[in-house]
Structure formats: structure tokens, C-alpha cells
Amino acid sequence: MLKPKVRIGMIGYKFMGKAHSHAYRDLPFYFDPEAEPVMQAIAGRDREGVETAANKMGWASFETDWRKLLERKDIDLIDIGAPNNMHVEIAIAAAEAGKHILCEKPLAMNVEEARRMRDAVKKAGVVHMICHNYRFVPAIRYAKQLIDQGKLGHIYHIRTNYLQDWIMDPAFPLVWRLRKEACGSGTHGDLMAHSIDLARYLVGEISEVSGMMETFIKQRPLGEMSGGLLAKTESDLMGTVDVDDAVAFMAKFENGAVGVFEATRFGKGNRNSNRFEINGSKGSIRWDVQQMNELELYLEEDPQGIQGFRKISCTETVHPYSEAYWPAGHIIGYEHTFINLAHELMRGVAHGESPSPNFDDGYRNQLVLQAVSDSAVLKKWVSISE
Ligand SMILES: NC(=O)c1ccc[n+]([C@@H]2O[C@H](COP(=O)([O-])OP(=O)(O)OC[C@H]3O[C@@H](n4cnc5c(N)ncnc54)[C@H](O)[C@@H]3O)[C@@H](O)[C@H]2O)c1
């Protein structure tokens, strides 16, 4: 039987554009996806830049205005890898044009935008997904299986740290990630959104939060991102940083668990440390993206004397997605999280079902982000409410 083809139009071709392009290219190499991704077109504003990117990354065509992608009949899915302030307009227009959507995180700048995006995809009946790629790490998928099987027992605690250090130099410019009108929030929507997603996936819904936020460097020279997490200073003029550099919050979960969350771009020496520990009545797990193939597991059922955290290399055929790659012990990396996510996206489109995490998850995530910001301003506990 012929596989359905999913013709993709992608907006934004730098950091995430590269990760998504690679995923679509490599998906059929490793997996036998239920629908075939076709790299139909990318959009960017600068003709030379977008043409070069299309040729380098293997896209069949390009546009210099993203709206053109929505008009094209030969595009089935819109992939949004542009800054956060563009998500709402693109996603709603794409849904109204009947296109399926993959949107980068955070879903939106605020709850109101996220709600409108969620309502638009539901009304249009298109498949929707949000790019919380860490859910697709084999070790995280396996952790979810262990928790669902009751191996850890009743969950009491989650503590997460998401630490980076790329903006610590005061001369680092005021890129879009540090301007509220472009990103909505700083470290919070960028890094903490991932930790919130993992907590919701592994532990459950958060019901109440108490948070704090800090901006350490309040003025920076003007400039823009040049790719990855690098940037170019473009002026001697200074501008105001109006988003958080660091954020922390305590949380209560609907199931009685409690959480402590920390995210910062001022964690000197931590280039990208995304880690957590979960403690249950029968066991605990620990994970850090810097050793993303490994899951640390403690089980009370182990005989006394040899109890302790063991390190599992989640590269065996029993571990989710691992069979598609290499023999046991032959590790995978950051880019494979996007391939696994693209695999679920293609399955979703083939079946007309939105995979998880989708815009419902993006919306719920935004409710938590908002409650933490509100709590930091009000200096008190805030309940998560619609
Ligand atoms: N899943 C993850 O772990 C992860 C990691 C990094 C970024 N992100 C998210 O991905 C999104 C993009 O971030 P990034 O790191 O790729 O940013 P980036 O600065 O590297 O790239 C942004 C891209 O958007 C393009 N763009 C900006 N305005 C545009 C316009 N008007 N029309 C067309 N294109 C436009 C830029 O030219 C660039 O290609 C953000 O929402 C960010 O939060 C997610």
C-alpha cells in the first residue's frame, strides 16, 4: 500500500529549523514511518539566506513570506520554528488554511494566545503537536513506563534544574530571547517550559505554585541571534532586559506530589544541564540530558546490601525507539529526540490524531508558566485555573 505523503512547509531555519530539517531527512532512514515527510518548502525573510538554507538542508523550494506557504496547495503541514511572538498568528492562519501544525515551545506568549491557538486547531480539525522534544528521549519514555507500572510506587517528589550560562557576559546582546515583546518571558518560557512538560508527563497535573524570578543584568547592547545560542552585537546603543534571567518555583500536584523547579541562564559552567530526580514510595529515578542515554534507578525491592542507584543504558531493544538506531550501548544524541518526535508526528497525521504533547499540553503548560509569573509578582501561592 502507498504511504501517505506529508508535504511540509517550515518557517524559521536557524537553530530549531536545523534540528527539524535533520529530523525529517533522517526519519525514513531509521524508521518505517506511517507517513512519509516531504521537505517541500521553507520560509524566511532574507532571500539569499533562505535559499542557501533550503539548498543546504534539502528543501525543494523556498518563500520569502511565510504567508505564501499557507496559500500553497502542495503544503499539508506547517512547522513553526520562528520566535515566540510569531507562533499565534502563524498557527491560527495555518489552522484556518486547513494545515496540520508542529509548533515550537513555548506554545505562545501568554495564556490568552495559547487558548486561541488551541481553539483554532480544534475548530479546524487539523493535527497539532508542540515540540517538547525531551519527552522523546528513550530514557524518559522508559522512565514513564516504570512510573506507570508502579515500579516507583506512590510519587512524592520531583525536583528539576534546567541550567545554562550563555548570556552571563554583560556584553552579550539584547537578542529576541531577552525582549519580552518577542519572547513573552525569558528563561521561564524557554527552559522552565521543558521542565514543566516533563513534570506533567511523568508526575501529573500541577495544581498550585509559588514562584520567584530575577533579572541580573538589566541593560545590554542591541544585537541579534546568529545561530544556535550565539549572537552578534550590532550597536553601541543599550536596551532594557524586560524578562527573567532566572526563575524558581515550588509546586503542589493534583495527586499530592510536591515539586521544586529551578531554571537559569546564569548557571556558570552549565551549557545545557536539564536534569531531574523523582522520588516514590518504592524507588527513585534521576536523569540529566548531558548523559541522556542513561537513567539512574533506585529500587527498594533490591536485596539489602546491594541497594543503590544503578545506571541503565537505555539503548537496549526494550527501550522505546532504541531498536531503530544502533546495537545496545551505541548511544544516540540530541538530534535523535527530534527524529523520534517526527516519527510520532507522522503517525499522528496518518491516523488523523494529534500526538502528545499537543496544543492542549501547550495550553496547560502556559497556565503553569502564567501562574508562576503571577505568583512572583504577588509574592504568594497561585492556583492553576482556566
Ligand atoms: N525544542 C527546543 O528545545 C527548542 C530549542 C530552542 C528553541 N526553541 C524554540 O524554537 C523557536 C525558534 O527558536 P530558535 O532557537 O530556532 O531561534 P533562532 O533565532 O535560531 O531562529 C529563528 C528563526 O526564525 C526566523 N524568523 C524570525 N522572524 C521571522 C519572520 N517574520 N518570518 C520568517 N521567519 C522569521 C529567523 O530568520 C530564524 O530563521 C522559539 O519558539 C524557541 O523557543 C525550542
UniProtKB/TrEMBL annotation:
Keyword Oxidoreductase attributed: yes
Q: Which UniProt keywords apply?
A: Oxidoreductase
One Pfam family hit: GFO_IDH_MocA
| InterPro entries, per the entry | Gfo/Idh/MocA-like_OxRdtase_N, Gfo/Idh/MocA_oxidrdct_glycsds, GFO_IDH_MocA-like_dom, NAD(P)-bd_dom_sf
The reply to whether Nucleotidyltransferase figures as a keyword in the UniProt entry is: no
Which top-level group of life is the source organism from?
Answer: Bacteria
- Give the residues annotated as coiled coil: none
- UniProt domain GFO/IDH/MocA-like oxidoreductase: residue ranges: 140-286
Tell me one GO molecular function of this protein: nucleotide binding
Q: Which Gene3D superfamilies match?
A: Dihydrodipicolinate Reductase, domain 2, NAD(P)-binding Rossmann-like Domain
Which residues belong to any copy of the Gfo/Idh/MocA-like oxidoreductase N-terminal domain? 6-130
Q: What is this protein called?
A: Dehydrogenase
